[in-house]
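Dig into my protein:

:::
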Amino acid sequence: MTTDVHKTIDAVWRIESPRLIAGLMRMVRDIDLAEELAQDALVVALERWPDSGVPDNPGAWLMATAKHRAIDRLRRHKLLDRKHEQLAYELESEREDIDAKQEAALDHTIGDDLLRLIFIACHPVLSTEAQVALTLRLLGGLTTPEIARAFLLPEPTVAQRIVRAKRSLGAAQVPFELPPRDELAERLASVLGVIYLIFNEGYSASSGEDWVRPGLCEDALRLGRVLAELMPREPEVHGLVALMELQASRLGARTGADGAPVLLPDQDRGKWDHLLIGRGLEALERAGRLGDVRGPYALQAAIAACHARAPSAEATDWPRIVALYDTLSELVPSPVIELNRAVALAMAHGPQAGLDLADQLREVAALANYHLLPAVRGDLLAKLDRHAEAKSEFERAAALAGNEPERRLLLERAARSAAQV
């Protein structure tokens, strides 16, 4: 029974801790203190809930407990100057149970707090690595060891990133406020980028023994869905959610029983999650209703939707995918997007059309050590029966790949090409 309660507490913590830290951050204006007070409330829950049971509103219970701890701390350290007296008064005034109307108002306040916390965790004074670590810690509810395991990093490295991130925010005196309107679009792009980076590391791990890490995809999806609730009028937020839902729908088919990668053309589409596909298509439609769907995430989601709607790789609307990549490439020029466009061109107009573009990309310095360029060239060369060249490309791709299952797959493809010479 106690084990079940602890599992429930863990689930509640994952859901409620971002709201809890965000609400406390508004009151105490200190990330370290807010997180510490939230952890204190969790400890009390672990002590009491196994005996008393999980309360009907565990989030409100945790918040009330954290506020009590904040008041006790203020009094214990005799910090009741005018500022802290006001803070203590505000905390005391919120102690009592609230009715449904007040609860709705509190939920709105917590939503505002949560949105502010998202923008703080992804503040431009922080490096991308620090933004990712702090976002997963404060908004994903992950512990430092969990973040370290997810990214295959030493725990001290992750702990240092989090500590330094908090210090950087404090040194820069970053206010607990939303960005000014003239900075909002740029800052939102940064937030979306961090969430999608987390998702991508789960969808196609850059290193390690697993090709996918579904837990990271789930964390990113949860963050994206929360952001969509908090910013319902932003098309690109819904575009990102649509993209992640549609890509996540394939997770069950992306690996075989032995954990080996299964590429898109070879996947059993019966294993795709149609609930996630439905959610993704709905999010994409919502983005469309809000305006012109020309943002990079919405365009990528539209490409993913073409795959989701098709019964097979051959029946996919490849000309439309090429057109979408054309638009995406104009909007955000990128050699990686061009490489993806080469694949689409090959499917729409034959492998030589794709290889012609892929060959041009060999001159791009940014792709010099990108394993997917030789992997794509190897695939296209094999389709053109140029098996000796394909073998060399697959071997080069394997040497560059950091992910072990992907490396083995590339070496297998090199061996198959060698057998065809």
Notes: The CA atoms of residues 25 and 31 lie 6 Å apart. The longest helix spans residues 2-28. The mean pLDDT is 87.
